[in-house]
Amino acid sequence: MRLARTATVAAIVATGAVASGCGGGGSPAPPANASPGLKVFDKANCGSCHTLAAAHATGTVGKNLNGLRLDQATVEHWVRTGGGGMPVFTDQLTDAEIASVAEFVARSSQ
C-alpha cells in the first residue's frame, strides 16, 4: 500500500511543477481564520501548480491532489525532498510549516 502511494506521488511529481510559483491557476488568499496548513499552502504558492478543492486551488501544471488519499508522511517527504520538477521547500518553510501543510494536504486529499 505504501509503495503504491509512493508511486502515485512520484507520478504526481514527475508530471508536475517545474518551479515554485509555476503558474497555471492558483488559489485565493485564505481567510484570516483559515487552518495553519491552508495558510502555508498559500504561502508556498502550492495552488499555482496543484488543484486542491479545500484550498480553492486550480493549478494545472502539477497533479490534481483531490481524491489521491495521500498520507502525511508521504506529503512531507515530497515537500522536503522535491523531485521530478517539484522544488524543495526546506529553504522556504520551517519544519512546523512543512508538517502543517503536509497534514492539510493529506487530510484534504481524502
Characterise the protein shown here.
By secondary structure, the protein is mostly helical. It has a single domain (2-108), classed as Cytochrome Bc1 Complex, Chain D, domain 2, CATH 1.10.760.10. The chain is built from four helices and two strands. The protein has helices spanning 2-14, 36-43, 72-81, 95-108; strands at residues 51-52, 57-58. The protein has a two-stranded antiparallel sheet with strand order 1-2. Strand 1 and strand 2 (57-58) form a beta hairpin. Helix 2 packs across helix 4 (95-108) and helix 3 packs across helix 4.
User: What do we call the CATH homologous superfamily?
Assistant: Cytochrome c-like domain
Name the CATH class. Answer: Mainly Alpha
Question: Beta-strand level of the residues, as a percent range?
Answer: under 5%
Largest sheet: 2 strands, antiparallel
H/E element order: HHEEHH
- What number of structural domains do the residues give? 1
Number of strands: 2
The stretches of 5 or more residues where confidence is low (pLDDT under 50) are 12-20
Overall average residue pLDDT:
84
Q: Give the overall shape, derived from the CA principal axes.
A: globular
Terminal-residue CA separation: 15 Å
What would CATH call the architecture? Orthogonal Bundle
CATH topology category name: Cytochrome Bc1 Complex, Chain D, domain 2
Structural class computed from helices and strand pairing: mainly alpha
What level of helicity do the residues show? Answer: 40-55%
Radius of gyration: 12 Å
Output the number of helix runs: 4
Order of neighbouring strands in the sheet with most strands: 1-2
